[in-house]
Design goal:
By secondary structure, this protein is an alpha+beta fold. It has 16 helices and 33 strands. The chain is elongated. The two termini are 22 Å apart. It comes from Coniella lustricola. GO terms for molecular function: lipid kinase activity.
């Protein structure tokens, strides 16, 4: 038994319709072979145009929707992705077939209404939609808007969800319940401003939540990279979101259109390694997750800075100080932070993820050694080498682990604290990390030449083998099961040149003052949920 899509929703896709030709459909574990057909649904009632299609091979890893059809049979929708140099990067193909192999139905069919359809339907009017779409127009290589127009909008329409027209006042309550609103970002503050207005402490619960059932949850589909996630997190004041029960905590659904997409790739890494056959693309997984994923808490950390720290955008340092940032991915100092900052220019961003390798080559020619120290603090006496302290006091005890800045100690090259396994799809920075396990892990090394550092970092592209390299320290800094939040990682920089005082928090760059500190600790209370699709 499969969930059924309506005729009105399907006609917008203009799917190829198979009649008697369907008896010749071939199906294997990895592909569906459709015979040539002579008819196409145009959306004009039962009127059919005569056309001839070539024999079509559908790879199952491209399949994003298989559902029942109101008039009988099944709807197949696939995602097509072109090469970066092509003018059109994304498209959907769709087919109506009277019957399919039962094995295919069992494995891929949508058996119940997607959660996002239920959420949108529970809203009573368009102005209080429980479903929003944020299109981060400048994320990555600027493909989010194209993906929305070519793929996501018709995909959502196929399951009965349509973009709100703010000028439309005649929609019935039922029609309004199937409407979502779209924000297309205008500047670097658009996502953060959305979160502040929607969930900030000054506004309390959002309009949507307060006007609907107390058990209703808002969902935001985010077409962005990791920066969009950190902007949402930091737009939410802890005094509002952390006090919301899980039934009202906002949910984000990620469509990975940034450069590294570390959070998405780390969450869904098992999909890439689950079988020997070609895995689905990250964008295919993201669309499947909208239909079949489940909402789970997103682990986060807080990075706190000493007075005098400032945000940095490109070459510009903001005048307003920043005291802390919330993250879900990584915070770093040294080579990684330097790489992220110095590659964040229009000249480099057009190269996508390749920009990191380009800048890395320049930085490695003469690898800087940072005058800094890193300590790990434990909230319990059992995990510290210092004098014992009662666990009820929650006093942190410190143990220096790197960068003492003494005449006999080498200086720091790389210090990174992460909640995720991968910073890119193929770059495994923390091989012990599991999807959403909530454990902070520390990776660092010191006293290396550029050639040695390059060799270490190449190990991250080989499944995370860098952690076994000589001189690399890799350890857990906090435990998700620790009721007190686990350990705290503290960095102190003594660099005099501002160039070498940059830290990175989920892609956001902060400049510390001379002698400044950054403290990182895992948050006990989640601020957001995230849609996760198990492999």
């Amino acid at each position: 038994m499969s969930w059924t899509v309506s005729r009105d929703a399907v006609t917008a896709l203009k799917p190829i319709r198979l009649g008697d030709e369907a008896k010749d459909i071939e199906y294997t574990k990895n592909q569906i072979i459709l015979p040539a057909v002579k008819s196409q649904l145009t959306g004009e009632g039962d009127k059919l145009n005569s056309t001839i299609a070539e024999r079509t091979v559908i790879k199952t890893e491209q399949l994003v929707l298989l559902a029942g059809f109101e008039d009988g049979g099944y709807l197949l929708v696939t995602l097509n992705e072109a090469q970066p140099e092509d003018s059109v990067h994304f498209s959907l193909s769709s087919f109506l077939v009277p019957y399919l192999a039962q094995d295919l139905i069992n494995e891929h069919a949508l058996v119940e209404a997607p959660a996002i359809v239920s959420k949108a339907s529970s809203s009573s009017n368009a102005s209080s939609s429980l479903l929003d779409v944020i299109v981060s127009t400048h994320a990555g290589t600027h493909l989010a808007l194209e993906f929305y127009d070519s793929v996501l909008q018709p995909f959502l329409a196929a399951i009965g969800l349509n973009e709100s027209d703010d000028h439309e006042q005649t929609a019935t309550p039922e029609e309004q319940g199937r409407i979502y609103r779209v924000l297309k970002t205008q500047d670097a503050n658009s996502v953060k401003d959305f979160a502040r207005k929607r969930w900030g402490s000054q506004s309390g619960l959002s309009t949507a939540s307060s006007s609907s059932s107390s058990s209703a949850k808002e969902t935001v589909i985010l077409l962005s990279g990791d920066g969009g996630v950190v902007d949402l997190l930091n737009g939410i004041e802890s005094t509002s979101a952390s006090l919301n029960p899980s039934s009202q905590r906002p949910t984000i659904a990620l469509i990975p259109l940034g450069t590294g997409n570390a959070l998405f790739h780390s969450m869904h890494k098992p999909h890439y390694t689950a079988s020997s056959s070609s895995p689905p693309s990250s964008l295919t997984i993201s669309l499947r997750a909208l239909l079949k994923g489940r909402s789970v808490p997103l682990p986060t950390f807080t990075a706190s800075f000493s007075p005098g720290a400032h945000l940095v955008h490109g070459a510009e340092t903001e005048s307003q100080e920043v005291s802390h940032l919330v993250g879900a991915i990584v915070t770093s100092y040294g080579f990684h932070a330097q790489l992220v900052w110095e590659s964040d220019t229009p000249a480099y961003r057009k190269f996508g993820a390749q920009r990191f390798g380009m800048v890395a080559q320049e930085l490695l020619k003469e690898l800087h050694k940072y005058d800094a120290s890193v300590t790990i603090s434990s909230p319990s006496a059992s995990s510290s080498t210092s004098a014992s302290v009662s666990s009820s006091s929650k006093q942190m005890q410190k143990r220096v682990v790197i960068g003492t800045s003494s005449a006999t100690s080498p200086l720091l090259n790389y210090a990174l604290v992460t909640l995720v396994s991968n910073l890119e799809k193929t770059f495994t920075i923390s091989p012990a990390s599991k999807p959403l396990d909530g454990a902070l892990r520390l990776v660092y090394f010191e006293g290396k030449t550029g050639e040695e550092a390059l060799s270490i970092m190449m190990g991250a592209y080989d499944g995370g083998k860098h952690v076994d390299a000589a001189g690399v320290e890799y350890r857990q800094a906090s435990d998700a099961a620790d009721d007190e939040g686990g350990g705290e990682v503290e960095l102190v920089t003594r660099e005099t040149d501002p160039r070498w005082r940059k830290v990175c928090i989920d892609g956001t760059i902060v400049e510390l003052p001379e002698g400044g500190t950054m403290k990182v600790i895992r948050n006990e209370e989640p601020r957001l949920d995230v849609i996760f699709l198990a492999a």
